[in-house]
């Protein structure tokens, strides 16, 4: 199912699970399809940080201190660090991961100061119900206050709104590949 998209020239793919991504992409990553940009968009467990740092080009789910520390340790050990995004729990939903908007500035500063991580972007998944614009506007404000250039929000069902609110990285896998 992915091959037609690859043959059409698409090279950026998001993955939810570290092990699945490695199994899917490692055999073809460099030899068959060059220039892949593989992103972890699912939750990261600290015991998978080393594998994620070694494999992914971008990790979009830095969502707590323990993960930031694990990524920093893994990056030092592996001699490389992928591009990093902090996941913000923009709707403050108990069932979702991410830092709360009220502590975003502090968390971003801490990742640089305490762990030497370069956070390039912010990612969020807003509540499923209701308008998305207010959440995306808040993400823009957090990014502006912290000099963050990359904003990853908006999915197959709301990417147009996300683009109007400054997202420059959207996730439309469901529209292309169907539901998981």
Automatic annotation (TrEMBL):
MF terms in GO: pyridoxal phosphate binding
Q: Which CDD domains match?
A: PLPDE_III_YBL036c_like
Which superkingdom, per the lineage? Bacteria
Q: Where is the Alanine racemase N-terminal domain?
A: 5-179
InterPro entries referenced in this protein's UniProt entry, alphabetically: Ala_racemase_N (IPR001608), PLP-binding_barrel (IPR029066), PyrdxlP_homeostasis (IPR011078)
Keywords, sorted A to Z = Pyridoxal phosphate
Sorted alphabetically, which Pfam families does this protein's record hold?
Answer: Ala_racemase_N
Family stated for the protein in its record: Belongs to the pyridoxal phosphate-binding protein YggS/PROSC family.
Identification of the protein by name: YggS family pyridoxal phosphate enzyme
State the species of origin: Asticcacaulis endophyticus
What are the leading ranks of the lineage?
Answer: Bacteria, Pseudomonadati, Pseudomonadota, Alphaproteobacteria, Caulobacterales
């Amino acid at each position: 199912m992915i091959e037609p998209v690859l043959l059409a020239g698409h090279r950026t793919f998001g993955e939810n699970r570290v092990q699945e991504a490695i199994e899917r992409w490692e055999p073809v990553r460099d030899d068959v399809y060059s220039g892949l940009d593989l992103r972890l968009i699912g939750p990261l467990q600290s015991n998978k940080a080393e594998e994620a740092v070694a494999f992914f080009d971008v990790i979009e789910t830095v969502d707590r201190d323990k993960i930031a520390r694990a990524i920093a340790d893994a990056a030092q050990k592996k001699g490389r660090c992928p591009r990093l995004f902090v996941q913000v729990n923009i709707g403050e939903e108990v069932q979702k991961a991410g830092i709360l908007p009220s502590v975003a500035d502090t968390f971003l500063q801490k990742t640089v100061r305490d762990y030497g991580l370069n956070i390039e972007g912010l990612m969020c998944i807003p509540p499923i119900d209701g308008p998305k614009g207010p959440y995306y506007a808040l993400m823009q404000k957090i990014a502006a206050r912290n000099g963050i250039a990359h904003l990853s929000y908006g999915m197959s069902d709301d990417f147009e709104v996300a683009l109007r609110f400054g997202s420059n990285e959207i996730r439309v896998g469901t529209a292309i590949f169907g539901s998981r």
